[in-house]
Amino acid sequence: MLEAVAASPNASSPSRPIVIGVAGGSGSGKTTVVSRILESLGDDQVTVLEHDRYYRDRKDLRLEERAALNYDHPDALETGLLVRHLMDLRAGRTVQAPAYDFTLHARKPATETALPRKAIIVEGILIYTDAALRELMDVKLFVDTDADTRFIRRLRRDVAERGRTMESVIEQYQSTVKPMHLEFVEPSKRYADIIIPVGGYNTIAIDMMLTLIRSLTGR
After folding, report:
1. What are the residue ranges spanned by the domains of the chain?
2. Lowest CB count within 10 Å: 3, 48, 64, 119, which one?
3. 59-79 mean pLDDT
4. How far is it, in rounded angstroms, from Cα 108 to Cα 97?
């Protein structure tokens, strides 16, 4: 996980971290899969970088204009910065990752410290659409869940955690989330090494995934 404590920018690890990609549609169960990996390896052994930390900062726009942007297109994210941060972590260097305020649709002023640990998880719906980012990953997972389940989970999350109204969530899903999923997220599944059906509730697939990851990290 990310830490708010300061760390030396020259910190290094004895061996290169294992980089694990966790992709899938919004509400597919990526967070559950990430949690299972953390439980298996230990929180102190894993750093998690969420792709949506890297949404471009558009404070030049009014809040209403920012709310109307398409956040499900690859261009909405500063993926190049994530690539540079991941390269630094792989090289044993600490980075300052951006933090994002989903209620204001803007980056927070303060960054958060990410440490180069034994395993680094990169999580997000669009992480496999960028070739440079894919090349840095040792294992690529795709969490595959049906559209109805994903929509219901997204609706509950955005209303409860991100200050959205039910109407705004539905409008966003219809106008950008669903079409962008079909155009970008679903096709990126072909890059995955392991596809986990039924999200985080497929115990057999999860156990197989954890066995592989433990063998790669020596846990």
Report:
1. 18-217
2. 64
3. 94
4. 11
Contact between 28 and 199 under an 8 Å Cβ cutoff? The reply is yes
Distance CA 211, CA 111 (A): 33
Sheet architecture: strand order including 119-123: 46-50, 119-123, 18-24, 139-144, 194-197
Longest dimension (CA), the chain: 51
Tens-digit pLDDT profile for residues 97-139: 999 998 899 999 999 999 999 999 999 999 999 999 999 999 9
pTM for this structure? 0.86
Using an 8 Å Cβ cutoff, are 139 and 194 in contact? yes
The helix, strand and coil proportions of the chain, stated in percent and rounded to the nearest 5, come to 50, 20, 35
CB–CB of 9/93 below 8 Å?
A: yes
Residue 2: helix, strand or coil by DSSP? coil
| CATH architecture, domain 18-217 | 3-Layer(aba) Sandwich (3.40)
